[in-house]
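User: I'm writing a tutorial on reading structure tokens. Could you give me a worked example: one chain, its sequence, then its tokens, then a sentence or two explaining what the tokens reveal?
Assistant: Sure. Here is the example chain.
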Amino acid sequence: MGARYTLGLLLVIYVVNHVDRQVMNILGEAVKTDLGLSDGQLGLLIGGAFAIFYTFAGLPIARFADRSRRSRIITVALLLWSAMTMLCGFARSFAELLVARIGVGVGEAGCTPPAHSMISDSFPAERRATAISFYSLGVPIGTLFGLILGGYLTDVVGWKTAFLVVGAPGVLLALLAGLTLEEPERGRYDGPARTEVEPLLATLRFMAGMPAMRHALAGSAVQTLFLAGVGAFHTSFLVRVHGLSYTETGLRLGLIAGVTGGIAVFGAGWAADRFGQGDFRWQFWIPAAGAVLSIPFSLVAYSTADATLAVACIAGATIFNHTYSGLTHAIMQALVRPRMRATMSAIGLFAMNIVGFGLGPIVVGVLSDHFGGGAEIRYALLSLIVCMGWAAVHYVLGARTYLRDLEAKAA
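And here are its predicted structure tokens:
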């Protein structure tokens, strides 16, 4: 059915991926109240439990994807994480919900590494940043639906039914993927590049030898630490500090993620391909600038006493701090050979998830408990803003060797 259909279906699957992942963010405050949890336990449910198993399952699945049919792996993974999301709705304790969230993480580990590999084999290098950024729209769009739908369902039918409702569509989508998702030819746009599967240690040495790769990994991991940490507790922040309902919070955060986040993700990829025709280093420069420009918006968002201004500044920060996601993945895919791509995606996600989704929510939760656990959550969110400046430094340093590392990859 062609590259565009493949990309479109992969986007829909990734939207479902993030609906099922992000709905926990909006349901978290209700889950905490119902099950009597601390902010630290809530951070573990949102981040640690999911991210650790997501991350460690990702590498073996990616190695398998570099050898076998990627479309089938995605289909099976979609069915698994959708079923485990529904199972979250039957949890009666912290331990039961923890196990179900682990299952969601294991299932979702089979989505993005093979998807990145398929997209890279479906589009030429000069269109790849746009294509991967288009796929990355699954994050803001999925977050939009997850937060808006989750917030509404929490107020109307409760958090347990919400899990059942958001998990069910993935089961039907898995049937469509199994019937229509086609497998692209590996290395189609890579000319005479090597296409055999290389040993894992050789692959890791190849990647580690590129300074641009190391800085892309470090920068994206640190930035994800901030975004995952504050994102996990934006609902708690707006409910506790500004008195918004779950429906109001879900609507506002969902629109921010879906509209401003979507503009940032796709716009950054489009701009990088447009300006990158003359210099590929724009793939680093754009997220570096975005990270720095987001900082004053975040400072105001978490310190103001005005709810409208807080929401507006979260939106302003999102415009800039979401420019990195598609571009850092495009950088990583550009720096490796065809049969390394799924493995590279898994390694990139390993860094983002262990450091970002794994630690971010836990760090914010523990800091919130330390500061008092109520409206003092704002101080935990403010504490993480330093990560954005740290990430920008890595992007600037990565740009310095990017062109040379691209040449070394083809050698």
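What the tokens reveal: The chain has a mean pLDDT of 86. Residues 116 and 342 are 7 Å apart (CA to CA).
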